[in-house]
Model the fold of this input.
Amino acid sequence: MNPPLLRLEHVNRQIGGLRILNDINLRVEPAEILGLIGPNGAGKTSLFNIISGQTAADSGQLYMAEQVITTLSVSQRARLGMARSFQTSRIFPELSLLDNLAMAIRIRLGSAYRWWRSKQSLVSSQALASELLQGTPLATKQEQMAATLSYGEQRILDVLLCLAQQPQLLLLDEPTAGLSQAESRAVMTLVHTHRHQCSILLISHDIDIVMQHCQRVAVLSQGNLLACDTPDRIKRHPLAQQAYLGAAGLPGVSP
Done:
């Protein structure tokens, strides 16, 4: 059995006497899409911040490919192959869609600010960016300024920017929030196209997406990890149902 790509052991986080995360133990397996769900205030984004290195855990250990990353910075984790999207777009609005992606590729290749052979680097990165765009709803808008894209198109670009880094671990924070059904399908198609190249940890309030696309689902409530199991088992988990949707239960489960 292969070791997990990401492993959290006894992770705790407290703010002003309030326990945000309580003894979290979690694994993300190679090439797995793991869903992370829970009500508002459950601790999902706090957990993402700790995994990505934006905030530190008060205690516990984090491992990526069996390497301790607990004290590593955001940039150090990125160099190990971790990428993260946010709930709001992080694009360069005054650059074209193609140049946004080409910049992300040059950063990955270490040539973003290298002036020597800059023309060769630019041409190469733009070719790779154009290749990444093929088959997406943005393929015909390569030269369009990012600022002119619709909200949904900007969210698709966000995911593409993450994928341009060729991550081993991709953290997606509400990637389909506010999108139409067609845009949501486009985002999840991107995710599945690259799922064998990286592991994905996905936060979403869209239970249908989580249950349809994730191999396992982790449920947080008030900083506690209540369960982590297959979608079918999570649907029938009494604590998960109670914590997430109260008496209404989870979709697809008869009362």
